[in-house]
Specification:
Elements: H1 2-17, H2 19-54, H3 58-63, H4 65-71, H5 77-88, H6 92-102, H7 108-118, H8 123-134, H9 138-158, H10 172-175, H11 183-217, H12 219-233, H13 240-247, H14 251-261, H15 265-278, H16 280-291, H17 298-323
Length: 324
């Protein structure tokens, strides 16, 4: 707590010393949120909450019950979380998981196993924003996306025995209670969606400020030297170290930094796969805002995101060697 307090005091000092610079940093973060994140996430936040309240996911969950239980050791509701996550991206999977836990449709241990393969980015960001928007390469976007999703599935298999108990099975038919359509459900779903998307925007703005402060105090530089040494051992240009270092905090900024210097499309694809699959600390804190009620610790979340990133990176190495 003392170190955290000292860090926050340092941040406040930087904000006071150079307010214009960091106000501009926050503005840039809010601008990206308003242009790209808000229109992409808000409809999914609203619709998924509405589906959860109305019980529209029950048919899918029942049809996938045996498969999900056998493969990932979670009940059929996990298929719905995975589907919404791969369609919409961070942090929808975490939000839907927390909603299912609140409804007692999954247990705490199921939620823990569930997040290992349902914390993903979506095609709009990966192909549209990164592939086409930053690198002018739809091919790169598709390879990153496929690697990212395969990595998530492998990650789910890796953690399928985590806190597993044969008696820990949530029965969908017994647990779910349909309340019927009402104005109250619409209002509750709308307020939940607004609150959630504002939380995401707040984290993005804060991390844009923090990254610029980290740059000013030399932290990004130190991390870049560290990662540059690692990349050099594999014959990769250490120029990518800046994007990798920045991406640990905020993945959009990390991918953007790579787009400014990239010369090898294969290397850029592999490194961006790692950054997107890890997600960045900003995304992790967004997810933990929802997952803390499921009794999931951030240490576990960080651990499983790192293994996801490594697995997806390995898959992307194979795919780039075949298709690029």
């Amino acid at each position: 707590m003392i170190l955290c307090s000292i860090f926050l005091l340092i941040v406040i000092i930087f904000l006071i010393i150079n307010p214009n610079k960091y106000i501009n940093s926050a503005f840039n973060g809010i601008l990206i949120w308003a242009k790209a994140v808000l229109p992409a996430l808000f409809p999914f936040f609203f619709i998924t909450r509405l589906l959860t309240e109305l019980g529209g996911i029950k048919i899918l969950a029942n049809s996938m019950q045996k498969f999900m239980q056998k493969v990932f050791r979670v009940n059929g509701m996990g298929s719905y979380v995975f589907l919404t996550s791969i369609m919409s991206g961070y942090p929808v999977g975490a939000k839907v998981t927390s909603e299912l836990y609140e409804k007692q449709l999954i247990s705490s241990s199921e939620a823990k196993r569930l997040v290992t393969f349902t914390s993903t980015s979506g095609p709009l960001f990966v192909i549209g924003t990164v592939g086409v928007g930053m690198f002018a390469s739809a091919e790169m976007g598709f390879i990153i996306l496929i690697s990212h999703f395969i990595g998530a599935i492998l990650n789910g298999l890796l953690y399928r025995n985590t806190n597993y108990n044969k008696n820990d099975k949530t029965t969908i038919n017994q647990k779910f209670q349909y309340t019927g359509f009402s104005d109250n459900i619409l209002e509750k779903s709308m307020l939940s969606a607004i609150n959630s998307v504002l939380v995401v925007g707040g984290y993005i703005a804060v991390f844009f400020i923090l990254i610029d402060i980290f740059n000013d105090i030399g932290l990004i530089g130190l991390l870049s030297k560290f990662f540059g040494g690692i990349l050099s051992t594999f014959g990769i240009s250490n120029e990518y170290a800046i994007g990798l270092s920045t991406g640990l905090f905020e993945m959009t900024r990390g991918c953007y930094e790579n787009s400014l210097i990239f010369t090898d499309v294969k290397i850029a694809t592999i490194i961006n796969t790692f950054i997107i699959s890890f997600g960045g600390l900003s995304t992790h804190l967004q997810a933990m805002t929802f997952l803390q009620k499921c009794n999931i610790k951030i240490s576990f979340f960080l651990k499983q995101k790192m293994t996801h990133a490594l697995l997806a990176c390995a898959v992307s190495i194979v795919l780039t060697s075949i298709f690029m």
